[in-house]
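tokens incoming
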């Protein structure tokens, strides 16, 4: 197999991490590179393990998305969805197993297969049993909300040829930069293309709109569609609310500028733009302590780490 190369690319989450803290961005996309096969206790291995850690809300949201992907894929391929009971029971089991494994710290041995929770890794983030119970309950309620929603009926009525994407990692080019997107679900409707984004918690309206504008642009470019025929909607599985959006070329131009600025700021810190080489010290740590509170890299970040904290050999 050819050697993997750490190519420069952009995604909305990369842009957000960089804006939050350039050092965190370095740890995530350069320091952790190669950590999947690095020896235990090496710095890249430690960064790689820490990079996968999630807050309990992110973890539950990921499991709900995985469960929805399974339901939708089954629906697409067989014409009928698994029963609500089967979905709830599968999700309930997954929540229990992940929680147990994370509590035992097994993610240090197998971070790709075993999700790790920040609340288990860091004492200052520990929460009471009630907080865990709430997260479990909300995840299960999200699936129940889905089964009783209008969108479930719509998806049920689709012809197999109507389906376009279910959580597939997609990419397109913006000013020669590879941009990654992952649409939760996209399918044909009479008026054009419907794009769905599931929300499992409180959603920031502006951020969600920016995310959906990027998805609409991707859809418009990839399938050669008039933006007026792309209909992105966010469906909040906590509240049951659906918010429909619509975008134009002007919105796409705005995103292009945002991406260009973000890419320029990222590249300005690289040692070698062509080779995509970076060194840690060139990426400043956040001046504010706010993003540090739930940052997975506290254990190794010079702003917080003590020698006793570090899992990694320097
Ligand atoms: S702990 Fe704070 S300064 Fe360090 S990488 Fe994380 S967010 Fe940045």
């Amino acid at each position: 197999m050819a050697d993997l190369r750490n190519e420069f690319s952009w995604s909305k989450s990369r842009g957000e991490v960089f804006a939050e803290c350039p050092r965190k961005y370095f740890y995530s996309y350069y320091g952790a590179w190669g950590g999947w096969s690095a020896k235990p206790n090496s710095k890249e291995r430690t960064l790689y393990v820490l990079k996968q850690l999630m807050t309990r809300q992110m973890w539950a949201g990921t499991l709900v998305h995985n469960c929805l992907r399974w339901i939708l894929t089954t629906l697409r391929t067989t014409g009928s969805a698994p029963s609500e009971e089967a979905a709830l029971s599968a999700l309930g089991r997954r929540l229990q197993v992940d929680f147990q494994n994370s509590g035992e710290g097994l993610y240090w041995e197998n971070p790709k297969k075993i999700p790790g929770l920040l609340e288990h890794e860091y004492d200052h983030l520990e929460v009471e049993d009630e907080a865990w119970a709430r997260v479990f309950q909300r995840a299960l309620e999200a699936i129940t909300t889905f089964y009783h929603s209008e969108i479930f009926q719509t998806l049920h009525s689709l012809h197999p040829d109507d389906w376009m994407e279910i959580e597939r990692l997609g990419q397109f080019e913006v000013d020669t930069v590879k941009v990654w997107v992952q649409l939760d679900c996209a399918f044909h409707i009479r008026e054009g293309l419907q794009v769905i984004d599931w929300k499992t918690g409180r959603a920031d309206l502006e951020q969600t709109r920016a995310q959906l504008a990027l998805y609409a642009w991707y859809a418009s470019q990839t399938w050669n569609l008039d933006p007026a025929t792309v209909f992105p909607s966010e469906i909040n599985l906590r509240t049951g609310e659906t918010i429909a959006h619509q975008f134009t070329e002007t919105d796409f131009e705005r995103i292009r500028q945002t991406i260009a600025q973000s890419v320029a700021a990222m590249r300005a810190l690289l040692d070698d733009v062509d080779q995509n080489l970076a060194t840690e010290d060139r990426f400043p740590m956040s001046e504010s302590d706010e993003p540090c509170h739930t940052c997975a890299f506290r254990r190794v970040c010079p702003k917080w780490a003590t020698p006793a904290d570090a899992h990694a050999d320097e």
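note: The chain is about 45% helix and 15% strand.
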